[in-house]
Amino acid sequence: MERTYIENAFKSEGKVLIKGWIHETRDLSKIRFLILRDITGKIQVTGIKGETPKDAFDIIKEIPRESAVEIVGKVKDSKQAPGGKEILPEKITILSKAEHPLPIDVSDFSKTELPKRLDYRFLDLHRKHIQAIFKVQSTIQQAYVEFMINEGAVMAQFPSIIGSSSEGGTDLFNVQYFEKKACLSQSCQLYKQMLACSMEKVFAIFTVWRAEKHNTIRHLNESRQFDFEMCFADDKIVMEVLARCVQYIIKKVIEINKRELEVLEVKLKIPSVKYITFHEVADIMKKYKKHVGKDDLSGEAEAKLGELYPDTIVFVHDWPLSGKPFYIMPKGKDLSYGFDAIYQGMEISSGGQRIHIPDLLVERLKAKGLNPKDFKAYIDSFRYGSPPHAGWGVGLERLTMLILGLNNIREAVLFPRDRDRLAP
After folding, report:
1. Residue 396: strand pairing partners
2. Buried-most residue among 97, 171, 378, 419 (CB within 10 A)?
3. Mind listing the pLDDT tens digit for each residue in 294-327?
């Protein structure tokens, strides 16, 4: 007999085979209920003493919550049952019995603290609320790929093991690579530039590792990043692409994830776009007495931008050169063609026009205290007809966190890796 998913059981008549997890049970002596849950929803199963086969009737009383079962039974209209349908069981088979007590609360209104929930993430993922987050995140990734394909960009995979820092200024995870020293990549930046200068538009979903010893609600030591690079382009062109990309992603989430947004109590709007220089932001923040560094925005400044421009992608451009990586193109002596994108009060992207002139690249590497010899292959790639180009990166987990209004970025990672967590 072929399986029927619960959402389809509500449209069925006659006998069905359903599979799922025991969400809850209730024993009224002569009538016993269980709620069965699968990925599509929940349905009531009703056992009646004297009518339901004894084996099935007894199992309803004994089976622990979160056990996996399969049930053969008849679908019946019921005014009292949630959704107006119930199943009268003929046979209940236990596929996997859950041990009790459960180590965490997996109810829809769980009060278990996040660290303990993450210790038992495999069980935390039984919750409708948590599943909703990752269904939305799945849509975000699919929408990003769709958008980029529609833009004519080529999807690429880049090395995760590299010989030296790809950005500088970030602590690295060092690894032994046969007889050589290597490190885990903190960016695919250099590789995507090299590829874009041949194939014009490229994109990737790339895992990055950063060995910074922080424990904040917005940072991870392993994360996923949406990367985009385009040649014959400057900062303004790729900012426009990023704006349309984020708008497309949010539009798709609104269309596809209506049920999940309801579960998470999130009301989304497709954001508008605002362009503003770093100097203008600094002047605004003086008015509100918010700290702005010489070459970077503080968290409180980003939060204020989110407050002043809600549901808006705020592009802060003409960024101080000293605050951007060595590969960002200078704009005069002190400024650069670099930018950050702020959404819902937090940075979601950093990008800009890249340096495609080898001598200038060597100069900027030295200015940042880096050794050009460590970047020889990268520098040499621009000696053979590499045009002006620009791009950006967006953190998947950070974007998920902000779209859904989550309080901690670890909520947006299936199995987070931070300074203290290596398991599960």
Report:
1. none
2. 378
3. 999 999 999 999 999 999 999 999 999 999 999 9
- Distance, in Å, from the CA atom of 88 to the CA atom of 48, rounded to the nearest integer, reads 8
Closest CA to 271 of 194, 348, 332: 348
pTM of this structure: 0.94
Q: Which two tokens stand for residue 365?
A: 């590497």
Nearest 5 degrees, angle CA 237-CA 395-CA 198? 45
**Residue 44 near residue 81 (C-beta atoms within 8 A):** yes
Q: Which helix (H) or strand (E) holds 276?
A: strand 272-277
Q: What positions carry a catalytic annotation?
A: 210, 212, 218-219, 347, 350, 398
Q: Are strands 312-317 and 272-277 parallel, antiparallel or unpaired?
A: parallel
* CA pair distance 42, 24, nearest whole angstrom: 10
Of the candidates 37, 388, 367, which has an alpha carbon nearest to the alpha carbon of residue 231?
Answer: 388
Is the distance from CB of 228 to CB of 392 less than 8 angstroms? Answer: yes
